[in-house]
Specification:
Elements lengths: L4 E5 L4 E6 L33 E5 L24 H13 L4 E6 L1 H4 L7 H22 L7 E6 L1 H17 L5 E5 L8 E13 L6 E11 L13 E6 L13 E5 L12 H17 L3 E2 L5 E2 L1 H5 L4 E5 L5 E9 L6 E3 L11 E5 L2 E5 L4 E10 L12 E11 L3 E12 L13 E7 L6 E3 L2 E11 L10 E3 L3 E13 L2 H20 L4 H34 L15 E3 L5 E2 L3 H6 L12 E2 L1
Parallel strand pairs: 3-4, 3-5, 5-6, 6-9, 9-10, 10-13, 27-28
Antiparallel strand pairs: 1-2, 1-4, 7-8, 11-12, 14-17, 14-19, 15-16, 16-18, 18-25, 19-20, 20-21, 21-24, 22-23, 23-25, 25-26
Helix pairs in contact: 1-5, 3-4
Length: 588
């Protein structure tokens, strides 16, 4: 008999454990009363038949919180596999009153090492599933509110539990979610018969007969199948260890044409990605799809059926932004105002957003008032703008990205408000800060300034003298490429070498420093040429040429009781005209 433990999850840990005790004929659970209550503060949690029940079942070589060999016992507070804990925490966050049960069948999932140790574990799935069915029946849980979620061999445990529960009670469980159901021993099996095949012989043109075992498809009754619950959802993430065929009512194949899943480095990791993905979906992660639909938990819970192929490489990001100019808050004063004039400033106003990887979106609104300032009081050099993304999707998180801006001030010598206008630019549009999701690092990149939600963008924000202008700061979230990571590694090495050089005698230090400076110059020139080549390849334009200025990108408005004159210089600078606002009093 396989020893199985049914562990009840409290607020953030296992708080009760029920070991299985089968009758002589292994047909009925003698007692399903919890023993070993661990934490009094979690007394409220148990198995309330009025609440939804979620059962998490591990697979091969895993454990669910009890077995001594992995330290999962009372001495370490019954610690299960990390992915099981993460799933339980996500479920508790989503449904505070839910029944959450972790099934520990390590006794059957980790048989003694030998030639058939996996085969033994695969065979044990039926017995473990039948014990689980007896436990659910004994706890008098509502089958219409039960979801079994099993990974790998645990998916087939779920199937056998669903079939046995229907046999015992005449009722079907509401839902089974198979997370990359195990393929070996559940796709094909030996029939016990042999067939003869010919293989090349020792001499050219000869062949030898060889007896090989016949194989046949595993019938639905011996694996997870659509009849095991009202709805069976199977999520497929691995061709090597998972089941390659559709075996549920609704089969979701994840990045099926890719060798590796996001953030994974081996085919074994691909197998485990199903757990990470499903936990993220429970947390509320949404993945946009090329057909305009999304993959989220609501879709898995819908009535959709059949097979779908989905992409989880493009991530949906949603949340809000905020921005501050260093210690100046969200408004940066741009110099001391001249007597009789109001202050010059640029202000960043926060924004909410929904976007996807590599898609431009509005980071926030910039309000720029260009007044007359005391000469020399304007900011010198770069000043910071720190933009914070507060994400609600794919998972709640907060990350601040640091950018540098600078102001080009004119001498106000012409009397023409446009020619005397000042220019705001960003110095470096790619932040060094990163955040990680699904093993992939992401950065925030500035694209430019716009007045039409990013349809057209400019690299500079012009405001005529004594005018007020508005623009949107456009950015995009980009995955960090392998080339970028490699380049950062080179830079770190160079910086380390530079610091070491400082400790050398002066003459040697100067020679080495000159060599590094020459190398850096060559590297910069090569990088620029390389990027220019890429730019020309994709756009057909040299990188130094910007797109044609479209005046509608910026809103330039005259202040009350002032006259804004359209001169030839203005027409040359704004060939598309200037987009005014309601505050324009006189335009000539």
């Amino acid at each position: 008999m396989v020893n199985v433990n049914f562990n009840i999850w409290g607020q953030d840990r296992i708080i009760k454990s029920t070991p299985s005790r089968l009758g002589a004929d292994a047909s009925a659970l003698i007692s399903a009363n919890p023993v070993g209550k661990l934490f009094e503060r979690d007394e409220q949690y148990g198995t309330n038949p009025n609440n939804n029940t979620y059962v998490i079942i591990h697979g091969f070589q895993n454990q669910g919180g009890n077995q001594f060999s992995t330290g999962g016992n009372g001495n370490n507070q019954f610690t299960p596999e990390e992915w099981m804990s993460e799933r339980a925490k996500a479920l508790r966050e989503r449904e505070p009153n839910a029944n959450i049960i972790l099934v520990d069948w390590e006794d059957g999932a980790k048989p003694p090492l030998g030639l058939n140790f996996y085969n033994e574990a695969a065979t044990n799935t039926r017995e473990v599933g039948e014990q689980l069915a007896q436990y659910l029946k004994a706890r008098n849980l509502d089958p219409n509110k039960i979801e079994l979620m099993g990974h790998s061999l645990g998916a087939h445990v779920s199937g056998f539990a669903g079939a046995k529960y229907k046999e015992l009670t005449g009722n079907e469980l509401n839902r089974i979610t198979g997370l990359d159901p195990a393929g070996p021993n559940f796709e094909t099996r030996k029939t016990g018969n042999f067939t003869t095949v010919l293989v090349p012989g020792p001499l050219p043109g000869t062949s030898l007969p060889v007896e090989v075992p016949e194989r046949e498809p595993v019938p639905p009754s011996d694996r997870l199948d659509p009849d095991d619950a009202k709805k069976v959802v199977a999520i497929h993430t691995s061709r090597n260890l998972g089941h390659d065929e559709a075996i549920g009512d609704f089969d979701v194949f994840i990045n099926w044409n890719n060798q590796l899943q996001p953030g994974q480095s081996t085919f074994v990791d691909n197998h485990g990605y199903a757990n990470e993905l499903y936990t993220n979906l429970i947390k509320g992660t949404v993945f946009p799809q090329p057909d305009g639909k999304v993959l989220d938990l609501d879709r898995l819970n819908s009535g959709e059926s059949g097979r779908i192929d989905v992409d989880t490489l493009r991530v949906l990001f949603a949340g809000s932004t905020s921005g501050i100019f260093g210690s100046d808050g969200n408004r940066k004063i741009l110099g001391t105002p001249s007597e009789g004039d109001e202050e010059s400033y640029v202000q960043f106003d926060e924004s909410e957003f929904t976007t996807a990887t590599d898609i431009s979106f509005n980071l926030g609104n910039l309000n720029y008032r260009n007044g007359i300032t005391v000469f020399g009081s304007e900011p010198e050099g770069d000043f910071p703008l720190n933009v914070t993304l507060s994400l609600t999707n794919p998972v709640p998180s907060t990350q601040t990205f640091n950018f540098s801006f600078n102001l080009t001030s004119t001498l106000n010598a012409t009397g023409d408000p446009v020619k005397d206008g000042d220019i705001l630019r960003f110095s470096d549009g790619i932040a060094k800060q990163k955040f990680n999701f699904q093993g992939t690092d992401y950065r925030l990149q500035l694209v430019g300034f716009s007045a039409d939600s990013g349809q057209t963008t400019l690299g500079r924000f012009n405001t005529p003298e004594q005018r007020f202008s508005e623009a949107q700061l456009i950015g995009k979230i980009k995955p960090v490429s392998i080339l970028e990571e490699a380049a950062e590694g080179v830079i770190v090495q160079i910086e380390g070498a530079t610091n070491a050089i400082k400790e050398l005698p002066g003459q040697i230090k100067d020679k080495i420093q000159n060599t590094i400076d020459d190398y850096n110059t060559r590297l910069a020139n090569y990088s620029k040429g390389f990027l220019d080549g890429l730019y020309i390849k994709f756009t057909g334009l040299p990188s130094g040429l910007s797109q044609q200025r479209i005046a509608q990108n910026l809103k330039a408005s005259a202040e009350p009781n002032s006259t804004f004159q359209i001169t030839e210089a203005v027409m040359d600078q704004y060939p598309g005209g200037i987009l005014g606002t309601e505050s324009n009093d006189n335009i000539t």
